[in-house]
Amino acid sequence: MTKNFNNGNLRPTEKLLSVLSGSSTLHYDTWTESRAFRGIGRASNKKWLAGIHPSTLLTRTFKRAVDSIVTLSESGEFYREFPKNIKTPDYGDRWGRLANYIEINNRAIANMTFEHCCCGIISTIKLLPAIPPSAFSWANCVILSQIWPNIFGDGYNKGLEENSIYGVRLNAGYSRNIIDFSIADKVSPEEQFRAFNDLAHFRGLKTGYRVVISADQMKIAHPDGDDEGFDWCNAEHQELWINECVKLCKLGFEAIFIDSAKHIGGYDCENYTGVGDLPEYPQMQYILNEIRARSGMTTLSFVGEKSSGDFDRYKNLGLTAGTAFINPDNYETVKDWSEKLKYARDYAPGVEVSNDNDTGGTPYEIRLERIKNSLFGFELASDKLPSFMQMEDLFPLRYDANTHLLMMTNPSYSTDGTPESHWYNLFTHDDGIEYNKKTGELFAYAIDK
């Protein structure tokens, strides 16, 4: 049944379905059911797709993507109309201390038609059926690489020219790489994000996004003038940064991954690779507290890039988890740190499969071992350490691409200018499909915990 998308009673997912498909009525997807992986043991009702090439999902229509998501319903109930009141999976206020964070480069999988780039949030929704659901004791959280416009050419792919996600324009709405602005008069950017969060939450996933804090990597956009350089000493700029984050949290995001967080307050800056000043330590304490207070969300998880042995520094800053401190290649090391930190319930460093600076070349066997150690390196599931991985750790990229390249540039790998060709060529095929199947097998046992 076709619905009027101007109906104020329609939820964002219904609006997207009506606008993109002409109908919000869902249909059971036997294709999905026949290919679904299931959790082992008591997790047998948790389902997702594995052993597939991402283009198989990315080339499906939005309608078929939602059909697939609802077909995978953990309750076993199929909904002909997408439920109106979707709540975030409940793992308590401190869920982020145990979570697996999976960063999806939503720009890289956007709709690339010749030189234009858009609709990354729709593509990410299409990929949700292939993200393993959360376990009984801990959540899987999807982190989006891009939310705001980038400085160097938002809405375009420019081959291998600089087009970095790390260069951000604030006060300019949301990225043309990510939002479908062709329908923004019917489904606003905010509603498109809300639909993504509702669908992810229905899948049993938490969600979050990446932010940068290096001053020279941010600009303040002015509608009637030139962009202004960001300055942490400018109270108006600080206020804008806080409010941009709060708006997203109110749309359903619960995790914020903070680039360069280790160096806040001038700490260990001989290894700082960002550009420009960083917030002072008490300033960032205030900022994170304000985001929590203004959003009214006690469940927010703040994840800091990099960590060290000075865990109190990060805990007192207000962070929930950190990255790249624990050796991911040694199961016993991971398990030992889980035991050492089991009473640290507010903050813990985590196990990193790979990060946004990964330049590729890590053998599949090593990645799989790191995922295994991340998912099983504990005595009790309640003592699990957080973990961090990239899209490439689930869906291997083509051999001449890597995570960092796709953060710094925005190439299209299409041979004919179509998005279908780009999606097909972005990822590896037979070996990537087999690898993705093996990650599915690891998660199948882990989500029983």
Describe the model:
The chain is built from 15 helices and 15 strands. The mean pLDDT is 96. It starts with 11 loop residues before the first helix and ends with a helix. With 449 residues, it is α/β, with parallel strands linked by helices. The strands form four sheets. An eight-stranded parallel β-barrel has the order 3-6-8-11-12-13-14-15, surrounded by four helices. A three-stranded mixed beta sheet has the order 7-9-10, with helices on one face. Strands 1-2 form a two-stranded antiparallel sheet.
Question: Layout of SSEs?
Answer:
Layout: H1 12-21, H2 30-35, E1 36-38, E2 47-49, H3 54-58, H4 62-71, E3 100-104, E4 111-113, E5 116-118, H5 120-127, E6 140-144, E7 168-170, H6 189-202, E8 206-211, E9 218-222, E10 225-229, H7 235-249, E11 255-258, H8 281-295, E12 301-304, H9 311-317, E13 321-326, H10 331-340, E14 348-352, H11 364-376, E15 387-390, H12 391-394, H13 403-408, H14 419-426, H15 430-446
Helix pairs in contact: 1-6, 5-6, 7-8, 11-15
In short:
With 449 residues, the protein is of the alpha/beta class.
**Number of E strands:** 15
Secondary structural class? alpha/beta
| Cα-based radius of gyration, to the nearest Å | 21 Å
Q: Provide the spatial order of strands within the biggest beta sheet.
A: 3-6-8-11-12-13-14-15
Tell me, rounded to a whole number, the average pLDDT.
Answer: 96
The major sheet is characterized as: 8 strands, parallel, barrel
Helix content: 25-40%
How many helices?
15
In terms of DSSP E residues, the strand content is 5-15%
Low-pLDDT sequence parts: none
Overall outline = globular
Amino- and carboxy-terminal Cα gap: 41 Å
N-to-C SSE string, H for helix and E for strand: HHEEHHEEEHEEHEEEHEHEHEHEHEHHHH
